[in-house]
Specification:
Length: 435
C-alpha cells in the first residue's frame, strides 16, 4: 500500500510506512490504513486483526468441532466431514464493534480503532443451520454458545459468545474455512470460524471449537458485560444502568473517504471511498466538499452485494486550497450516517461522518511522529506487561478516574498490583496517557 494517501490527522501508531497500523503487537490488534479502502475485496494481508489473547496454533489433524447441548445427537465434525454439507460462499463486511472508538467524545477505554478495523472478504464454508439440523437441534434451544480454541491470559474470562437461534438458523450465517479463496490464516481463525453477516465482529468467533445449544441467556463476561450498548440515547459520558444495555448485533451504515488526500493542482479530480451497512444495503452516498454546507450525490460503483463494501467515486472541481470533505451513506432502511455519533460507554458502532482534509495545490503538513514505546516505572511493567504490551496503554486517553476503573478491572483479571504501588501506577498512567 502506498503512503501517499495517509490520513490528514496522522497515523499515530503506524508500524511502518507500508503495512498495517499496530495498536498492539501482543495480543495482535492491527488496523488497516485508509488507503486499504481503495480495494473492494480486502486482501488477507491488509485485513485488520483483533484478538483478545494469543493466537492459538491449531493442527487440523487434532481438531474437531463439537456440537452439544440441546440436540438429539451430539456430534464431532472434522473439516472433511463439514465439507460434505452443501458449500456456501458469500461476500461480507467484517467490522469490529469498536471501529471508530478513538473518535468518541468523551473518550472511552478500549482499543483505539480509527477507521480500519473493518474489511470485506469472500467467505466460503457451510451453513450453520445445516450442521445444527444434522444434529437435531431441539426446538427448546434459544441460544448457540460459541467457543474458540484461544485461551484467556491470567484470570481474564474466556472469550465465549452466543448467537440467538434466529441468527444461527439464518441461511447467511456460515461456518467458514476459507477467506478470499484461501484457507483461513491463523490470525483470522484457522481452521474454522463463524461469520454472522450484517452483525459486528464480536459474533464472528474464530478458531471455533464447540457449539452448545442452550435455552437461556448465557451470563459469561463477553455477553453479560462486554459488547453491550444502551438501547436508546444517553448523554455523552453518562453511566448507564446495566439493565438498560442490550447486546451489540447489527452494524451501522457507514462510509469512508479513501483518498487521494492531495492533488498537485486545481481542476477536475476523482475522490474514491467505500460504504457499507448491515443487512440493509447502501443505497446512496453523498459528499460535501465544504465541511457539510452543501452535499452532492456520489456515484455508486463496483459490484453490489448484500453485505459487502460498496465502492463510490465523486467527480469534483477542486479549487486550490485546503478543503474539509465529508461523505455520508444511507441504506435501504433509510438510515443515514449522523454528523455526530451516538455516544455509549464502550464506544461501540461509531458511525459519524468523518472530516478529511484534502490539499489541492498546497503541500500536505507533516504528520505527527509515532509515539515511542515507554518504559514506565517497575510497577507499571509488572502489572501491565504480563498480559499485553505497551501499545495497549499508549493508545488510551483516559482521566485518572477512568484509569482507576481500568486498574480495578485488570486487577480482577490477574494483574499484579501491590496496594502500595497503586498510586504510583495511577500517577504514571494518568500523566502519560491522558485525554
Ligand atoms: N475466539 C475468538 N474469536 C474472536 C475474537 C477473539 O478474541 N477470540 N475476537 C472477535 C472480535 S472482537 C472481532 S472484531 C473479530 C476480528 O476478526 P479478524 O481478526 O479476523 O479481523 O473476531 C472475533 N472473534
Ligand atoms: Mo471486535
Amino acid at each position: 500500500m502506498s503512503a501517499a494517501v495517509a490520513f490528514a490527522t496522522g497515523r499515530v501508531l503506524r508500524a511502518a510506512d507500508t503495512g498495517m497500523i499496530t495498536l498492539s503487537s501482543s495480543p495482535e490488534d492491527f488496523e488497516m490504513p485508509l488507503d486499504g479502502f481503495m480495494q473492494e475485496i480486502t486482501p488477507v494481508g491488509a485485513f485488520f486483526v483483533r484478538c483478545h489473547t494469543l493466537i492459538p496454533k491449531v493442527k487440523e489433524a487434532d481438531w474437531k468441532l463439537r456440537i452439544s447441548g440441546l440436540v438429539r445427537e451430539p456430534r464431532d465434525f472434522t473439516i472433511s466431514e463439514l465439507k460434505r454439507f452443501p458449500a456456501a460462499t458469500l461476500t461480507a463486511v467484517l467490522e469490529c464493534a469498536g471501529n471508530g472508538r478513538a473518535f468518541q467524545q468523551p473518550r472511552v477505554a478500549g482499543a483505539q480503532w480509527r477507521y480500519g478495523s473493518v474489511g470485506n472478504a469472500r467467505w466460503t464454508g457451510v451453513r450453520l443451520r445445516d450442521v445444527l439440523e444434522a444434529c437435531g437441534l431441539s426446538p427448546s434451544a434459544t441460544q448457540l454458545l460459541l467457543n474458540g480454541e484461544d485461551l484467556p491470559v491470567g484470570k481474564m474470562p474466556d472469550f465465549q459468545r452466543t448467537i440467538e437461534r434466529k441468527k444461527a438458523l439464518h441461511p447467511d450465517t456460515l461456518l467458514v474455512w476459507a477467506m478470499n479463496g484461501q484457507p483461513l490464516t491463523a490470525e483470522h481463525g484457522f481452521p474454522l470460524r463463524v461469520i454472522a453477516p450484517g452483525w459486528a465482529g464480536d459474533s464472528w468467533v474464530k478458531w471455533l471449537r464447540s457449539i452448545e445449544a442452550i435455552d437461556h441467556e448465557f451470563d459469561g463476561f463477553w455477553m453479560k458485560t462486554a459488547y453491550r450498548h444502551p438501547a436508546g440515547h444517553v448523554e455523552p459520558g453518562a453511566t448507564v444502568d446495566p439493565k438498560d444495555m442490550m447486546p451489540v448485533t447489527d452494524l451501522s451504515v457507514k462510509s469512508v473517504i479513501a483518498g487521494p488526500e492531495s492533488f498537485p493542482k486545481a481542476g477536475a479530480v476523482t475522490i474514491t471511498g467505500m460504504a457499507w451497512s448491515n443487512a440493509s444495503p447502501v443505497t446512496k452516498v453523498e459528499v460535501s466538499a465544504d465541511n457539510g454546507a452543501n452535499w452532492s450525490i456520489a456515484k455508486l460503483g463496483g459490484t453490489p452485494t448484500k453485505y459487502g463494501f460498496r465502492k463510490w467515486t465523486y467527480r469534483w472541481q477542486a479549487k486550490e486550497g485546503v478543503h474539509t470533505m465529508l461523505s455520508r451513506a444511507t441504506n435501504a432502511a433509510g438510515e443515514t450516517q449522523p454528523l455526530r455519533a451516538e455516544w455509549n460507554p464502550s464506544g461501540y458502532l461509531y458511525n459519524a461522518t468523518q472530516p478529511m482534509s484534502i490539499y489541492v495545490g498546497v503541500s500536505v503538513p507533516s504528520k505527527p511522529a509515532a509515539m515511542k514505546p515507554s518504559d514506565g516505572p517497575a510497577a507499571y511493567r509488572a502489572a501491565c506487561f504480563s498480559c499485553h504490551d505497551d501499545g495497549m496503554m499508549r493508545q488510551q486517553r483516559l482521566t485518572r478516574q477512568q484509569w482507576d476503573r481500568e486498574v480495578t478491572k485488570m486487577t480482577g483479571w490477574g494483574a499484579d498490583v501491590k496496594a502500595e504501588d497503586r498510586n504510583t501506577l495511577l500517577d504514571y498512567l494518568s500523566a502519560n496517557f491522558k485525554p
